[in-house]
Design brief:
This protein has one domain. Helices cover 31% and strands 31% of the residues. It has one helix and four strands. The strands form two sheets. The protein has a two-stranded antiparallel sheet with strand order 1-4. Strands 2-3 form a two-stranded antiparallel sheet. A hairpin with a 3-residue loop joins strand 2 and strand 3. The radius of gyration is 22 Å and the shape is elongated.
């Protein structure tokens, strides 16, 4: 049993170490407007729930990692 736990720990360490360069890259994501919507629900006077949606979205997210650690 202990041998399996150490193998899992080594495998998890390797996966983490190998994924660090991939996580350090700058990336930009764009949401597909044809297959996306923002939905909401609001309680009105505690009696009913009004639901709505925004179907036309234009969303872009950018992630920039620092080049060196402080």
């Amino acid at each position: 049993m202990n041998r399996y736990v150490s193998r899992i720990a080594i495998l998890a360490g390797l996966v983490t170490a190998l994924s660090l360069p991939a996580a350090a890259a700058n990336s930009t994501w764009q949401i597909d407007p044809q297959h996306s919507s923002a939905q909401f629900a609001v309680r009105h006077l505690g009696l009913s729930t009004v639901r709505g949606a925004f179907s036309k979205l234009a969303v872009s997210a950018s992630l920039t990692w620092p080049t060196s650690l402080p």
